[in-house]
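Input (structure):
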């Protein structure tokens, strides 16, 4: 249905159709831009896209939800921290940690996210994901003792050197 179609010349594509277009490397960026333009109307389709078979779709859905953060999207992104693909986990960590990308007021709760962030810091197979999880743990370093425990402090310092 979308084969060969230039997306920015195709007004009226639904959010689910745009999410599917994220799988095509030639249309991915255009689909991403159009999803962002849809705003909150794209959130549900992007949350569904976090379960897509294609890792590129899951990654870009994380990127869209980063900009359109709300409680439902936050919960879906927390689930994406367990994705089998490193790039999806990286995008989910960024989406949960980055303050400057957020248009809304929703922020992750420490009680839900901090244990997952600490697990990533300690156990993720990817050094890049472990490194990026420092930013997520850092959100609570001044308010939650677990974020600054001796065990994690040495991990943080080894990544910083």
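Output (sequence):
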């Amino acid at each position: 249905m979308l084969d060969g179609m230039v997306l920015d010349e195709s007004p009226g594509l639904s959010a689910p159709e745009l999410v599917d277009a994220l799988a095509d490397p030639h249309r991915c960026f255009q689909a991403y831009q159009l999803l962002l333009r849809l705003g909150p109307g794209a959130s549900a389709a992007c949350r569904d896209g976090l379960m897509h078979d294609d890792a590129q779709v899951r990654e870009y859905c994380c990127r869209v939800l980063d900009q359109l953060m709300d409680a439902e999207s936050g919960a879906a992104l927390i689930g994406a921290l367990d994705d089998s693909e490193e790039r999806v986990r990286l995008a989910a960590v960024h989406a949960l940690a980055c303050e400057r990308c957020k248009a809304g007021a929703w922020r992750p709760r420490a009680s839900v996210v901090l244990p997952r962030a600490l697990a990533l810091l300690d156990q993720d197979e990817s050094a890049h994901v472990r490194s990026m999880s420092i930013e997520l743990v850092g959100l609570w370093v001044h308010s939650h003792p677990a974020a600054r425990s001796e065990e994690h402090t040495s991990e943080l310092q080894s990544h910083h050197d």
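Notes: The first helix runs from residue 15 to 21. The radius of gyration is 17 Å.
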